[in-house]
Amino acid sequence: MIRFTVLVGVACGMMWSAPAQAAQTLTVTSDRSSVTTQAGSTTFLPIAISNTGSEPSGPLVAHLLVVDPASDGSADAEDWTGQLTRRIESIAAGATTDLSWDIKPIKTGEYFVMIAVTPLDPGETPPVLSPNIVFDVSPPGALAFGSVIAVSSLVPLTLITVDSIMRRRQRRRLGLLSGAHPDSSLGA
Amino acid sequence: MSLLRVVASEELTDSWVRGWSLPILAGIAGVLSASALAMAYTTQNNLLDAKEGLNVLVKLTLGAGVALSVFAAADSISGERDRASLEQLLLTPIRGSVLVFGKLIAAWSWWLAVFVVSLPYLWVLGTGLGIRSRAVVASMVVGLIFAALGGALASLFSVRARTNATSIGASILVLLLLAAPGQIPGAVMRGPIGTAVRAVDPITAGLEVLDRLLISEARLGAVVPWLIGPIAWMLIVGYLVFRVSSQIPLEPGA
């Protein structure tokens, strides 16, 4: 949450101060504008970062952000993917670098996923954000409550039944033994 | 070997045919059922919470199975002493180590039984989260090591303790001490010394394996280093049991 706030704050602050800096030469795009998935399912998210300027860029950092508009605005993106941040050494003038993230949502709801790209040298070029990619995450369907109810009732019942069968057999055997013994009170 | 089988089968029959094992297992299954239902109901919308829930279920299974194994092993020799039946056992032509390991096999069977009972729960919940095999393998590997280590430690005390209470008390105390580093807050245990303590302490290392496999979904190969400490402990304590059980004193310290 704090990390996201700082990142967005830094990104917004730098965009506002953009006129004092070098012109914006980076664009971040994705061929996905929305994704419909289930919690726990992995989605491959390709991202293209282009340098439209006439100079090669310096080192860059691309960072995945997840916004939860239903809550206070942030979701823990580190729970959604194994690698939040990617470093790019440089993008040549007019070239495009392709990156991808494997995203596994952990919670149902609607989220905005975006990639922030910022230079390691803050004076070089303003940070840039990809367009929102809307993730519509439905519950993990396989967590079938019905199966859990079935298992939760059947396992203890089976054990109790097996126990009662075994005890009845044991009592019957003892009864037979006591019946064969001259002192029939032994089995009681 | 055949004598070991005789002792083990006699002890197993005592535990599983003549004893109260099935009602105890049914009780454990009841606790697992309640936990599974609560988990499935409350975590339907949050996968991370669901994974945590599955992890708790595996830990519950381990806790119950290992505790029963420890109690059974702690009772193995000191219990015979308490019931004044040890002298008869020592008069039989059976080596002490065969006697202790035969009883230890029966003690370990408690963990195995709890593990088998937990399988349907792990299967259903693990399938829903896509980590069914992981949950089963993690519970089996860590449980096997914990049960072997806990049972062996308890047997060690049982051979040397004068009374059953001492043996059970000492076993629980040592297991609590071994579990203590796992209760220290994460930030303290993240440095090199903390990591070393976590890796060496068998219970903390075993629980780390569960966390990494079930919550972080780490590769199986990545958790192998965390198993070295617990396996080393298991082998050392197993060897000590073998050495100590070669001569079982009728009255320790007398």
Structural summary, described in words:
The complex is a heterodimer of chains A (188) and B (254). In chain A, 27% of the residues lie in helices and 30% in strands. Chain A is α+β, with helices and mostly antiparallel strands and 188 residues long. In chain A, strands 2, 4, 5, 7, 8 and 9 form a 6-stranded mixed β-sheet that branches. In chain A, strand 7 and strand 8 form a beta hairpin. Chain A starts with a helix and ends in an 8-residue tail after the last helix. Chain B is an all-alpha fold and 254 residues long. In chain B, 80% of the residues lie in helices and 0% in strands. Chain B contains 11 helices and no strands. Chain B is globular, with a radius of gyration of 19 Å. The chains are: A alpha+beta (188), B mainly alpha (254).
Features:
heterodimer, A: 188 residues, alpha+beta, six-stranded mixed beta sheet, three-stranded antiparallel beta sheet, 2 helices, disordered N terminus, B: 254 residues, mainly alpha, 11 helices
* Number of DSSP strand runs of chain A: 9
Radius of gyration of chain A: 31 Å
Compressed to H and E, one letter per element, the order of chain B equals HHHHHHHHHHH
- CA-to-CA gap between the ends of chain A? 70 Å
Radius of gyration of chain B: 19 Å
The H-and-E topology of chain A, N to C, reads as HEEEEEEEEEH
- The pLDDT mean of chain B sits at 88
Largest sheet of chain A: 6 strands, mixed
Percent of residues in helices of chain B: over 70%
Question: What does the average pLDDT of chain A come to?
Answer: 80
Ends distance of chain B: 32 Å
Count the helices of chain B. How many?
Answer: 11
What overall geometry of chain A do the principal axes of the alpha carbons give? rod-shaped
Biggest interface, chains and residues, is: A-B, 30 and 31 residues
Oligomer: heterodimer
Q: Hey, roughly how much beta strand do the residues of chain A contain?
A: 25-35%
